[in-house]
Amino acid sequence: MERSDIDLIHDAMHEPAQVARYLRALADGLEAGLLRLRSGEREVELHPAKLCTFELRTTTERQRVKVQVQLGWREAPGGRGSALEISSK
User: Fold this and answer.
1) By the 8 A CB rule, do 33 and 88 touch?
2) Under a CB-based contact definition with an 8 Å cutoff, are residues 35 and 24 in contact?
3) Which of 21, 43, 78, 79 has its CA 20 to 30 A from that of 15?
4) Using CA atoms, how far apart are residues 71 and 30, in angstroms rounded to an integer?
5) Which among 50, 49, 53 has a CA at the least distance from the CA of 70?
6) Integer angstrom CA distances of residue 74 from 4, 17, 53, 77, 78
7) Rg (CA), the chain
8) Residue boundaries of the structural domains of the chain
9) pTM of this structure
């Protein structure tokens, strides 16, 4: 079984406008081929591949609505990028 390393987790309540800004930065970073993420002391730089998997799932249970988005791609040979912060510039 292959081990999965967790580089960064951010789980917090935000206003919808802030969530939209995060999603726009993710979209811009995907198009640019570079995602810089930072939460607290944790930082990671990701380089999306030319082909990405995209999964969207919605659930509703007891008036609680969830939308889950999952993106994925294979890293190029040579491993991970260096750590930095979320932006598309």
Assistant:
1) no
2) no
3) 43
4) 10
5) 53
6) 13, 31, 10, 9, 11
7) 15
8) 16-72
9) 0.73
Q: Interior CA angle at 13 toward 25 and 49, to 5°?
A: 30
Task: Read off the amino acid at residue 72.
Answer: G
β-strand partners of 67: 58
Q: Give the Cα separation of 88 and 81 in Å (integer).
A: 16
At residue 41 the predicted structure's pLDDT band, cuts being 50, 70 and 90, is confident
Which residue in this structure is represented by tokens 């939308």? 67
Q: In this structure, what token pair is assigned to residue 25? A: 């930065």
pLDDT in tens, 10-34: 889 999 999 999 999 999 999 999 9
